[in-house]
Amino acid sequence: MSATFTKSMARNIFYGGTVFTALLFLALTFHTTWKLPQRDHRENLTPEVVRGKHLWETRNCIGCHTLLGEGAYFAPELGNVYPRRGPDFIKAWIQMQPTKVPGRRQMPQFHFTDQQLNDIVAFLKWTSEINTENWPPNIEG
Amino acid sequence: MQLQYKSQAVAKPYFIAAIALFVGQILFGLILGLQYVIGDFLFPAIPFNVARMVHTNLLIVWLLFGFMGAAYYLVPEETETELHSPLLAWVLFWVFLAAGALTVVGYLIVPYASLAEMTGNGILETMGREFLEQPLPTKLGIVVVALAFLYNIGMTILKGRKTAISMILLTGLVGLAVLFLFAFYNPSNLVKDKYFWWWVVHLWVEGVWELILGAILGFVLIKITGVDREVIDKWLYAIITLALVTGIIGTGHHYYWIGAPGYWQWWGSIFSAMEPLPFFALTVFCFNMVNRRRREHPNKAATLWALGTGVMAFLGAGVWGFLHTLAPVNYYTHGSQITAAHGHMAFFGAYVMVVLTIISYAMPMLRGREVNPERAQVLEMWSFWLMTVSMVFITLFLTAAGLLQIWLQRIIPNPQPFMEVQSQLALFYWLRWISGVVFLIGLVVYLYSFFAKDKPQPAEVGEVQPATT
């Protein structure tokens, strides 16, 4: 780089550029936070949904599944599993794990109570109603 | 050969721990790779999610060990003063190692839900989110270690010479510590949870970690090329400016489909499409500096790692990132094996390789010699090629799997269910696993290179003997 472009100029561009984009990012975040209630339908965040999220986390579901496309890619997307399979199928499926089919990917048995099953379904239902800009492309996730 | 500053010696245990945990990470990676094709492999002893936590958490922890070791090694030389407290560095080493080891043991022997209960997840729910699975005490331990580490490095820089490299490194490390605090924010609203989860994950690897990467690489390049510091500093500022100006708002490429407003498809696409620029600049920087070298440094392996970082970071983070960053493309690729392909080559090319670069440069001196014997260097360079080429193949096979997955599951008129698609990808998963085995062989060669000595030269055999009459 030429001698007219000094180190202090480079440093100032770094600080200026970083502060500017960081502030722009914060402004966008502020606006997003303001818009989110219309998109996440937080009025439907019932105690069941909150408990369901807790179950989702403490069973480390994200370690195999994706949720809205984020997580591990070992097991199916669950952001839209509620419309794909429906509540009864989801509960029955969780209860019958592991399938023990030789060679097939296995899901652990979590010994959920009926209430816990309802909670996890409530969480998945709430998640499926988030406005995700029509992602995933189809029901298979 | 003496170290320039005695206290630099504390970097050595950090590098050794980093390499040891690296080995663990790869072994669990091979378990995961096998579970992709033999679904019930090691089930229920080590379910996939547990192996994956160990694989990713070990990666993060060993890279952090590498960064800290790098800081302890380079800051005394940059600031021209001894480390503020080598004792503190030693204490933090054992605390961090114990916390890391206990966490991994916890993952492996206690069901995750019980681990959460035992470690106070009820007090503050932070667990069960990708990469942030650590129990609360571990997370708090990370904060304590990070703060004490920053104090140690900060005090050293404060009393010594303030170079651009040490300031950039410190800025990166402070950013790393501050952004980690978002790991403690876990609202019950999933959309908000995801939005701010990325402030740790994205703003680390596509933000402040790039500063650490630049500083470490800049330091090694100054040492091995002898190029004027002024030139390297200017390059570094240009690279990190590009990194943060594109990377901060580039976070938006994670906000397309998680409930955030649609305008993020524009912000995310435009800014993250420019994210390859800093990595391209990094590649040009590395080759430019080595071409303009003023000395022939005898550590050829370190030079190779430095150049490799430039190339592979650009390919993995830059090219494979760009491949699926535009919103209309990402609509189809999001959460597929394409993401896995990118993740593997980006982490390896940028952060694994930069840590191996500084280890390659510093470790001989930490072991009391300027460079490793010729044979050790040759073996190390073999390990470079084995690991790098096998990682390229891992990435290519995952990319092929990803393309086929997207086609069958998301594009054709009668899309197929996830598991049905997965079984059709088995060939690519097997090829990926074989590439992983080659990677492990490369890693074994790497480990062996630390103990390789030159063969004692048989005295003058075959040499031209002065004629005797």
Give me some keywords for this one:
heterodimer, A: 141 residues, mainly alpha, Cytochrome Bc1 Complex, Chain D, domain 2, two-stranded antiparallel ribbon, B: 469 residues, 2 domains, 16 helices
CATH top level assignment of the largest domain in chain B: Mainly Alpha
CATH topological fold name of the largest domain in chain A: Cytochrome Bc1 Complex, Chain D, domain 2
- Helix-strand topology string of chain B: HHHHHHHHHHHHHHHH
* Separate helix tally of chain A: 5
Level-1 CATH class name of the largest domain in chain A: Mainly Alpha
Largest interface, per-chain counts?
A: A-B, 74 and 77 residues
Find the CATH superfamily of the largest domain in chain B.
Answer: Cytochrome c oxidase-like, subunit I domain
| Radius of gyration of chain B, whole Å | 23 Å
Helix content of chain B: over 70%
> What is the gyration radius of chain A calculated from CA atoms?
22 Å
Second-tier CATH architecture of the largest domain in chain B: Up-down Bundle
Find the count of extended strands of chain B (DSSP E, 2+ residues): 0
CATH architecture label of the largest domain in chain A: Orthogonal Bundle
CATH H-level superfamily title of the largest domain in chain A = Cytochrome c-like domain
Structural class of chain A: mainly alpha
Q: Can you tell me the residue ranges of chain A where pLDDT is under 50 for at least 5 consecutive residues?
A: none
| Named CATH topology of the largest domain in chain B | Cytochrome C Oxidase, Chain A
Task: Give an overview of the whole structure.
The complex is a heterodimer of chains A (141) and B (469). Chain A is elongated, with a radius of gyration of 22 Å. Chain A has 141 residues and is mainly alpha-helical. Chain A folds into two domains: 1-40; 41-141, Cytochrome c-like domain (Cytochrome Bc1 Complex, Chain D, domain 2), CATH 1.10.760.10. In chain A, strands 1-2 form a two-stranded antiparallel sheet. The mean pLDDT of chain A is 97. Chain A has helices spanning 7-40, 47-58, 81-85, 87-95, 114-128; strands at 66-67, 70-71. Chain A contains five helices and two strands. By secondary structure, chain B is mostly helical. Chain B has two domains: 1-116 and 127-144; 163-400 and 429-448, Cytochrome C Oxidase, Chain A (Up-down Bundle), CATH 1.20.210.10. Chain B has 16 helices and no strands. Chain B has helices spanning 11-37, 48-79, 86-109, 112-118, 136-159, 164-180, 190-225, 229-250, 264-273, 276-291, 300-322, 327-333, 337-366, 374-411, 418-424, 426-449. In chain B, α8 (229-250) runs antiparallel to α9 and α13 (337-366) runs antiparallel to α14 (374-411). The longest helix of chain B is centred in the C-terminal third of the chain and has 38 residues, at 374-411. The chains are: A mainly alpha (141), B mainly alpha (469). The interface between A and B is large, with 74 and 77 residues.
